[in-house]
Structures are given as structure tokens and as C-alpha cells.
Amino acid sequence: MSLTPAIETTVVQGLPAIDRRRARRRAAWRRRGVVLAFLSPWLVGVTIFFGYPLLMSVYLSFTHFDNLSAPRWIGLANYRYLFSGDQLVGQAVRNSLWLMVFAVPLYVLSAFGIAMLVARVKHGVGFFRTVFYLPALAPPVAATLGFVYILNPATGPINVLLSHLGIQGPLWFQSPAWSKPSLVLLGIWGVGNMFIIFLAAVLDVPKHLYESAELDGTGPLQRLRYVTLPTISPVILFSVVIAVIAAMQYFTQAYVAANIASGQASQAGDVTVNLGFPQGSTLFYPVLLYNDGFRDFSMGYASAMAVMLFIAAFGVTAIILVNSRRWVHYGGAVK
Amino acid sequence: MRRVTVLVTLLAIAVVALAAGCGSNGSNGSAAATSSASAGPVHLTIWVGWSARELGVFKDVIAGYEKLHPNVTVTVRGSVNDDQIIAAIRGGNAPDVVSSFTSSNVGAFTSSGAWINLGPFMQKSNISTSTFTPATMYYTQYKGVRTALPLLADTWGLYYNKGMFAKAGIASPPKTISELVADAKKLTVRNPDGSLKVVGYDPFSGFYDGAPPMIVTYAPYFDAKFTDAQGHSILSKDPGWSALFTWQKNLVDWYGYNNLVRWQAAQGDQFSSSNSFEIGKMAMTLDGEWRVAFIAAEHPELNYGTAPGPVIDTHPELYGSGYVNGTIIGIPKGSKNESAAWDLVKYLTTDNHALVQFSNGIRNVPSTLASLKSPELSPDPHFATFLHVFGNRQSATSPITAVGAAYQTLIQNFAVKYQAGKISDLHAGLVQLDKQIDAQLAQAQVGAGAP
């Protein structure tokens, strides 16, 4: 590949100026063609599975679309209802913000903490890596079912154990105060993917940096502060961005937990939903979006919600990236 | 001679065709079915929500139809919900006939044109709306356009454990809400640590049939109306709703909110043999008529009785009424054989033998007036309660809107928060709820087409 431009340059130099320009242009187009050909699988995928749905969502957000008949243009009515009419949106946004503020730092800290511990293990490293990664392989629905069972306030093993110790366990998924922390516990249990990335980053920190720091008389906390964290800061940034976006799109676990915990999941053929059970505490923004779009025949309105979610996710990610310039260090260069 | 033979043959064909087209009077759908089904082999597909035992009974009813129409084969798919129906209609893969447990969605199915208008078919088959009860005719149409018919109906009533009643010295089931509260307290048994062992009556919104959208099942007992003549929400203006929410919260508070939640978490699933009422963990429950069949199949030893639900003390005349709802059936847009599909719909919804056979099998209420009085109906004192509730003129259903049961979800959310003590001012909360429902319905009307 790298020889081609050199050969073309040699050939072009032997021609008159106009022909040389044409030949360069042709060569440039050929290069673009090759690049496009290599990019085409990705381009086709992005266009079909991202570009088209995105544009359709934007269009549908300006329509009355009940999922069954053709969409009808209604201008900004969906956005007006979103910002001034729908009182469930406020609660949904607050719940999603709670996840971003409390769950994201806990996920990142847990993954990083486990990675640091496993990195120090001398024997049985493979076993511990497997143990901490394995939950990430559990399908979200199955994992949620398991957690709702384990945390059943009356019959779940956790509360049964606590009762033997004379402690009355919390109501977990049945309590608005405990439902979100229960979901966070579930998330921390399944933090394996992030843990693996952190583990790779922690193991990749050059040993000589630690040795130099030790020679300078630093303690473990100082080595963490001045060596480990700056070195793995790009991975921290990546994890934070991914976790924030995941928190904004949090749906499956909340939806399943609400239905199972409220005892409404077994009615064959029935579509009744205990929205955000208990007391709206698990009504996250995507749960409300799904309910409006697929249950309440308001896909146009749900599209407006989706557009706002996209803008919010884009904005938050941009803010994090801009701020990251102050604390993320690439290639060891400390600014 | 040859010309005469041809003329006679043509005349005979015309007469047969005319007779087949006009011959049915609606009392037996099978007669008209021959019009479309006699031409050759016909294959129909029907999607229904029933599963397991109930699906088996439905398949038996379908077998009866196939026996009457040897050239028609029907494929039945069970455990289907509205999400799947909508996806199939949108994808152009709709079956010939669909049925839904969620009658609230008729508004959306009708205004979107997803289910076709059955009016012309009914007219052609001489089927009058007077064949059915007014409540079932209400929840199968939207703004006067009928896109569905009732396929059996559901009513709600009180189930009570006779053994527990006798032990507590209670002679008869409660007829008023204050009697219900008094009996519930008498029948409740607590463990030494104060936790609940047996609950007299669980009023918790979100438990069993108090779950959404079933909060509405209480409305007829409190004479609670949803909207005024203009279609505006009137929950804050109708005293019935305040009475309903107040009663519910007071009884929840008597048990202790956390106590009740903890007890509920230990209960088996509503639609399983571990149902709390069936295993004696609950002395009374408000449930649909289908529970009679479930008890017969799962706990035939249970000594229980049924009665109409208790009503608000200020309206004793309402006793005997209840909430009415039911399975709906229709023809989706995209059905490949509308005429044959209609024959099947007509058979299932108007053939009294088929209705009674199905009713006897799954113990849902037969949905035509004639089938209610059919001698074929298996006599059962437990089930008879629900037939009376269904026939009561004061029995009511809930409004049909273009957004399905979305407004009921808002009411449910409110009830859940109020019973948890999260709303201090009931009236102010209901005023806010009215605004929310009105805004939701107004939003649904923006750009909505005529049905």
C-alpha cells in the first residue's frame, strides 16, 4: 500500500504541469475510492442502523404517529407536551440523573477497585479474573430475575440470613428508597467488562514508574495518585463516558425488576405494566419512552423524547470530554 | 336444449349464491360461513391471549367450527399480547383474526384503522347490537365505529373463605365498604412479632387484581365517574374517587404499609396454584370470574363463596353491580381473507353453543344475552354470582380513548403514591391528576385521524 503513492509521484514528475495536476487528481480520487471501499461495510452499517433511524426519529418527533397508521405532521406539539404537559417526565429525568450521579461513580470505582486487587494477586489470578468477569456474561433479564429472587424481602436468602442475625432486612425492590440501590448492586455485580478494561490498564502501567516513585520515598496512596491514576486516565475517561451513556439509556433491568417485583409478569398475554414500581422509583427516562411509544400508542411523542435523550447524551459526553483535557494524560505527557 | 341446460345451471348457481349471502340471521354464524368458505379449502390464522389450559379449551371451540366447515382449517396461536399484534399489523404479517385481553386498546385500534370496521359485516349478517349487553357494546367501539366484538366477558366479585368466616363468627359476606373493613380486621391474623400471617382483605393498589389498570375495577362500587359529558377528567369533582382512595389508604395504614408490602412479597403468583386466596393466606379477595375455574382445577377442596363486591355505604342500591370488561376479537388490517375471517368471528361471538362451550371451559361470562340464559350453561353457584353482576344494569366499564389505558396508568400511579403517604392533600392531588389526564388526552388528539 505504501509503495503506490511513491510510484505515482515518480510517474507524475515526468509529465507537463497540467497533465501532472490531472494525474494527481486521478490518483487522489483513486486513493479516496480505496479508502471508501475499505470503509464501506462500516458506512453501510452506520447509514442503515444509525443514520436512518436517527433521521426518522427526528422526523417522527414532529408527527402524530400511533405505530399503526401513517404519521401526521403536528409541528412542535410533542415537544410542547414534553416540556410543559407530561408530569411523568420530571420524575423520569430525576431517576435517570440519580443513576448518573450515584451509580456511575460506584460502577467505575468498583471496577477500578477490583482491578487493583486482582492485579496484586500472586496466586490463582486466572480464577479471580474469571470470578469477577463471569457475571458480565449473564443475560440482563436472567441476572435481574436472580437478584429480585435473592433480594425478596420475605423469602430471599439475604433477608432470611439477616433475620437469623436479628436484623430486619430492607424491602429492596419493593421499597422506593431501596429499589435504585438494589439496581446499583445488580450493576456492580455485573461490572465485569469494565473491570477487564481497568485490569489491562493497571497491568500496563510501566513498572519503572513505580520503582522511581518508591525511590523518591512515596507511599502507596501517593503512587496511586501520581502514577497509577494519571497513567490510566484515558481508560477512566472511556469508562466514565460509557457508564454515563449506559445510565441515560438504562432500561432492561429496571423494566424487568419492576414487573417481577410487583408480581405482574406472569399474566399470559396481558400487557399491563406497573410503571416504575414501586411508586415510580424505577421509572427511568427510557422506561417512560418505551411505555409511551409501544404501550400508549404515542410513537411520535416517544420519538421527541428520544431526540431529547440523544441531545442530552451528546451534550453530557461533550462536557466530559472538554473537561477531561484537565485530567486525562495521553502517552505519558503530563500537561 | 343445451342452451336451456346452461341457463338452468346459471340460475341454480345464482340462487345458491344469493341464499348463501343472505341466509344467516346471526343466531348461528355457521350458516353464513358457507358463503366464503364453501368455494374451496380455506385456511385461517387466529391469535389469542389464552395459554395453557384455557388455550386448550379455545382450541376445542375452534375444532367445533372446523367440524361445521370441513373445508376450513384454523391455526390457533396462543399467549399473544397486543405488542405482537401491533408489530404484525405494522409488518404486514397480520393473522386473519386477532383477539386482545386489553379492551382499552380498541380506541387505538379503531382510530388508526388497524382493525377493520365490522359494521358492514354485521349489517350484512343481520347481527344487531342488541344481541349483546350495552357495556360490552361500549368497549368494542370507538366514537361509534365498531371494530371489535366481545368474546366472553369478565366481571369482578368478592371471593370469601367460608371456613375463616365461620371461625371469625361472620355470617355473610360484606355488602358495604364499612362492613368489608370491619370483616377484614376481624379476619386478619398477625404473628407474635406483629407481622401479618393472614390478611383479611388486601386493598393495596398494585397487588393482584389491584394492579394496573385494575384500579378501575373499584370504580362502580364507589359510583366513581371518570369524565364529564365533554370528556374532561372529573376525578377531583366526583366524591366517589376521594372515598375510594381514602378507604384504600386507611385500610393499608391499619395493616401498616411496610407490614403489608413484606407480606405481599412472600405471596405466590396470582395466576398460580399458590394464589394467596386459594391457599388460605387471604380471607377475601376481589377477583374476576375466571378464579372459579382456577380454584376448581387447583384447589377443589377450598370451602369458599362468591358475592358481588361491597359498595360504598352512601349508595347501597349499587350492590349487585360491578366492573365489566372482557376479551375482544376483530379482523386486523391485512387479513388475507376478510370474508372467511368474519365468518369465524361471527361464529365465536354469536353462536350460543360455541359461547357456552367456551364459557363452561374457562368460566368466563358468555357475552350474548341469549347465551347467558342458555340451558347448556353448567350450573355453578360460585359462577352464577358473576352472571348476575354482568346482567346488572348498573355494572359499568371504563372509558375508551385513543391512548388505550394510558390514563388508567396515571390514576394507578396516583393511587400508589397516595396509599404510601406521599400525597398529603388528596383533593389538590386529584385536581393535578385531572389536569394531567386532560393534557394526555388532548395530546393524543393532536393530529389524530377520525376513526
Structure description:
The complex is a heterodimer of chains A (335) and B (451). Helices cover 70% and strands 1% of the residues of chain A. Chain A has 335 residues and is mainly alpha-helical. Chain A has two domains: 3-60, no CATH class; 87-324, MetI-like fold. In chain A, strands 1-2 form a two-stranded antiparallel ribbon. Mean pLDDT of chain A is 89; it is low at 266-272. By secondary structure, chain B is an alpha+beta fold. Helices cover 44% and strands 12% of the residues of chain B. Chain B has helices spanning 2-22, 29-37, 52-68, 82-90, 106-111, 119-124, 134-138, 162-168, 177-187, 239-255, 257-265, 291-298, 338-350, 352-362, 369-372, 381-391, 406-419, 426-445, and strands spanning 42-47, 72-77, 97-100, 141-142, 145-146, 149-150, 154-161, 189-190, 196-201, 282-288, 304-307, 324-325, 328-330. In chain B, the strands form three sheets. In chain B, strands 7, 8, 9, 10, 11 and 12 form a six-stranded mixed β-sheet that branches. A five-stranded mixed β-sheet of chain B has the order 2-1-3-13-6, with helices on one face. Chain B has a two-stranded antiparallel sheet with strand order 4-5. In chain B, helix 3 links the parallel strand 1 (42-47) and strand 2. The radius of gyration of chain B is 24 Å and the shape is globular. At the A-B interface, strand 1, strand 2, helix 3 and helix 13 of A face helix 4, helix 5, helix 11, helix 17 and helix 18 of B.
